[in-house]
Amino acid sequence: MEAKAIAKYVRVSPRKMRFVCDMVRGRSVDEALSILKFTPNKGAKILEKVVKSAAANAENNFDMNKDNLFVSEVYSNQGPTLKRWRPRSKGRAFKILKRTSHIGVVVKERD
After folding, report:
1. What are the tens digits of pLDDT across the range 21-56?
2. What sections of the chain are H helices per DSSP?
3. Pairwise CA distance, residues 35 & 42, whole Å
4. Mind listing the pLDDT tens digit for each residue in 68-108?
5. Among 32, 34, 11, which Cα is nearest to 103's?
6. 58, 64 in Cβ contact below 8 A?
7. Is the pTM of this model over 0.70?
8. Helix (H, G, I), strand (E, B) or coil at 101
9. What whole-number distance in Å separates Cα of residue 45 and Cα of residue 12?
10. What is the signed CA dihedral for 16, 22, 24, 25, rounded to 10 degrees?
11. Of 104, 103, 108, 24, nearest to 58 (Cα)?
12. Which of 38, 76, 90, 111 reaches 20 to 30 Å from 19, CA-CA?
């Protein structure tokens, strides 16, 4: 049995988010939360909320034991990109890409 949680349209680049995702993949939920608590990235706080949500979904919706849960899948896919313009010299404009992410977490129960 597995439970999931997804956060969409998060204003963090998916490339930066994947570094945080790699730190918690395969770990127990308690260990993953303690790692994310002390990681000084913006994405770590967001991923911490998603992991807590997935654990709560597992506990409340599927009657799983919270102590036996581990993070089986974590992914950060690219969402829509916000396009902005920065004025430059001689009347030019440079493009600024503000990227967004879709973050997903799947937790399972250890046997």
Report:
1. 999 999 999 999 999 999 999 999 999 999 999 999
2. 14-24, 29-37, 42-61
3. 14
4. 999 999 999 999 999 999 999 999 999 999 999 999 999 99
5. 11
6. yes
7. yes
8. strand
9. 11
10. 140
11. 108
12. 111
